[in-house]
Structures are given as structure tokens and as C-alpha cells.
Amino acid sequence: MSSGDKSLSLSGQSKADILVVGGGIMGLWGAVKAAQAGLSVILVDAGEIGGGASGGVLGALFPWMPDRWDAKKQFQYDALVGLPEELAVLEAATGLSAAFRRSGRIIPLPKSHLKAIALRHQADALNNWHQGDIRFFWHVSDTPPVADYIAPEFGEGGYVNDTLAARAAPRAVTALLKAWLERQPNVRLIEHAALASLDAPKGRAEVAAFAPHPSPLPASGERGQWSADRATIPFAPLAGSRWRQPDEGQSSISTITFSHTFIAAGVDSFPMLENLLPPLAKPLGQGVKGQAAMLRSDIDPALPVAFLDGIYIVPHENGYVAVGSTSENHYADPLSTDQHLDHVLEKARALVPALARAEVVARWAGIRPKSIGRDPLVGPVADHPNVISLTGGFKISFGMAHRLGQCAVDFAMGREPEGLPENFTLSGQLSSIR
């Protein structure tokens, strides 16, 4: 069976140095980094690789603000600077493109008092946004950096031009990572295979393979419960989960033994990890619904991303523009789009008049994993050091998942990850909720 086979028609046991549970952006980069280190990898996903929260359309890669510099901002900055080189290696090997562009970002300042704040950030960027000879800027100006792009009524206080921000096509990125992994002799990718049980001390997992469901069934609003015709797995998935117990008689159970496992199943990582931890005062994380849309427009794909008050307008290649996004902590249907997205589209069309009559060609909704500390959640589980969390990236996963994946590999190989902030670690975030 080749490394790219999707079915789990195994007899007996399979074995790998690293079992990656989840094939979103975090799990894919974790698998890439493990494979590059010479480790054998099996990656399983309950749905299709690159689906879930990683299958969106937006693709904005934004840095945190350049003020109040700390370890986590430095980690993210280094990740954003290094991402193009990481992608280029995979692109050269596969012939595919991630559609990455260091396009920058324009932020109009609707009120005059915002200019003074922006000017302070301009100075902060001069101090902090540099790596060797590479520098990026937070330019502030009275006139728009690009003419006839942003509606002038939004720029009363001027404009910010952030040159560090970038964009990529999320589905192109995950397709690139998957294609590279499929070419590796030490990697096996398995879709439509759910984690049924995990015995961490024995390094043993049972995985249930099943035929693809024609469409995902929405979860109920309560944590860990599914529609009546869908059973729960032992890890009690959160609302919006894609992880399910296969229908009786339509699945096969196989065993995978591993040295280490990366729990990278997005929002469903939280109950999986909680199952291995002492009782917590509150959940380790939650799912936050996001909605976005893709529009057809002849806007120049080289234009900067436009951003204002949570509204993203992301020019992509081939005449497409992505618009988003919502952040919903409460929702009835995790996978549907509704009036919340309509409201975002209305604001986007006002901000960028060229989109006024642009056709909406796709609408998307998904559940993003937000950890209790709002930061990525990476590192070994206490008492189970062979189980490594790799989740919780929320809105920033695509810009730093390659570095977080390397950190997970470092933990697995007994090394201290370089530059990983304490508040990005599982142990660091657990200390805040016990």
C-alpha cells in the first residue's frame, strides 16, 4: 500500500514513530516536520485532510500589533518571516503553489484620534519588526497607500500600511502539504478514520475506518452530543466536530502503535486531551464559529488586504476576493452560513466599493479551536509525555503552524523547542485554570 492510500484496510497492527491525529493545518505541518526529521508518520483524519477549520477561504496572515513586545510576538514574527521559505521547499518538490503573497495590509483610521495611536505603533514596528537585514514597517499616512481602493469616508484619521502582513490560499496550502507528504516513503495518510481509543502508556491507538458520509451532520448545541442517528466517541467531541463513531457494520477497527502521538484534531483536541488530564476547573478550550465568503471580482490580486473592525477583504489570484469573518461563541448550526455573514458582506462592500456588485461564489462556515488562554496549545501531557498537544491556533494557525509543528517534533525527540513561549505550552495554560 502506498503512502498516499486513503483507506485503512489493515490487518493486525501498524506502527509509526509519530501518530498524528488530525489532518488540518497543524497536523499537516506536524507531519511534515516529523517526516523531514526522518521519523515514520501515520496521519489519520476523521474526514478529508485539509477539511474542518483549515478548509476555509480567507487566508489572511496578520501579525500581532508591534507594541508591548514579548516572546509570543517574537515567535509569531519569526514564523511569518520564515513561512515563504518553508512553503518554497514544498512547492519545489511538488510543483504546486500555496498562493502566498507578502501583500501587506491597509487599515483605514475612521477617527482622527486613532492617528496618534498608529504613530506610536509605527515607532514600535521600527524597533521590533526586523530580523537581520529584513525589516517590515507600520507606515502611517494621511493619504491612502493605494488610490481608489478603500472608501474615503473610512479614512478620516489617515491610513496604516502594514508591510509584514501576507495572504495565502488556505486550501492551496493544505493541498500542498498533503501532496508533499504523499511523496514521502516514511509517511502514510489515512482519511475517514476516527480515533476510537487511545492507550497512552502502551503507545497504542484504535482507529475506526469508515466510508465517507455524504454530508456532515450538524452537532447539537450541547457539548459532546450529536444528532440522534450519530453516536459519540469516547472523547465526547465538541459541537461542530467531524469526529464520529462509524455506523455499525460499516467500519473496520485497526490498531496503530506509536512512540509519540500529536493531538491535532482542532476543536476535538480539547476533550481528547482532557480525557488524559486530572479534572479541570473549566474546559481546556472551545469552538468558535467563523463564517466567510469568496467573491468573484477583477480586483488586482497584488493589492494589500483591507482590514477594519474585524472585517477582512483578501484579494486572491484568478479574480477572487475572500471576505470574512465572524467570531461566534454561540451558534445553533456549526456548518451553516446565515445573516451574520450577510452583515459582514454588507460592511465589506461599503469598505471596498469595487465589491459592491461582486458575485458571491462560495459561502463557508467552520469551527475554530480557541484554547482557554486564546493562544496555541503545544506540548506534552503531564504523566503522558508521549502525547503531545498541537492545537488551539484559533485565527493565527496558518501563519505559525510550521514552527509549532517543529516544536511538537522537538518535544518528541527530547529537545527543548527554540523560542516557544510559556503561554503557548500546554503546561503553561493549564497552570492558569487549575
Summed up:
With 434 residues, the protein is an alpha+beta fold.
Per CATH, the superfamily of the largest domain is FAD/NAD(P)-binding domain
CATH architecture label of the largest domain: 3-Layer(bba) Sandwich
The largest sheet is:
8 strands, mixed
Distance N to C terminus: 46 Å
Strand percentage lies at 25-35%
What is the global morphology? Answer: globular
Output mean pLDDT: 89
Beta-strand segment tally: 20
| CATH level 1 class label of the largest domain | Alpha Beta
Count of helical segments? 8
Q: Which spans of ≥5 residues are poorly predicted at pLDDT below 50?
A: 1-11, 214-246
Return the structural class: alpha+beta
Keywords: Oxidoreductase
Organism: Rhizobium setariae
Protein name: FAD-binding oxidoreductase
Domain FAD dependent oxidoreductase: 17-404
What does this 3D model show about the protein?
The chain is an alpha+beta fold and 434 residues long. It folds into 2 domains: 13-56 and 172-285 and 372-430, 3-Layer(bba) Sandwich (FAD/NAD(P)-binding domain), CATH 3.50.50; 100-166 and 286-371, D-Amino Acid Oxidase, subunit A, domain 2 (D-Amino Acid Oxidase, Chain A, domain 2), CATH 3.30.9. It is 24% helix and 27% strand. The protein has helices at 25-36, 71-94, 114-128, 170-182, 269-274, 339-351, 397-412, 426-430, and strands at 13-21, 41-44, 60-61, 105-109, 130-131, 134-135, 138-141, 158-162, 166-167, 187-190, 193-199, 204-210, 251-263, 285-296, 305-308, 311-316, 320-324, 359-371, 377-381, 384-391. The strands form 4 sheets. Strands 1, 2, 10, 11, 12, 13, 19 and 20 form an 8-stranded mixed sheet that branches. It has an 8-stranded mixed sheet with strand order 7-8-4-15-16-17-14-18. Strand 1 (13-21), helix 1 and strand 2 (41-44) form a beta-alpha-beta unit. Helix 2 (71-94) packs across helix 4 (170-182) and helix 2 packs across helix 7.
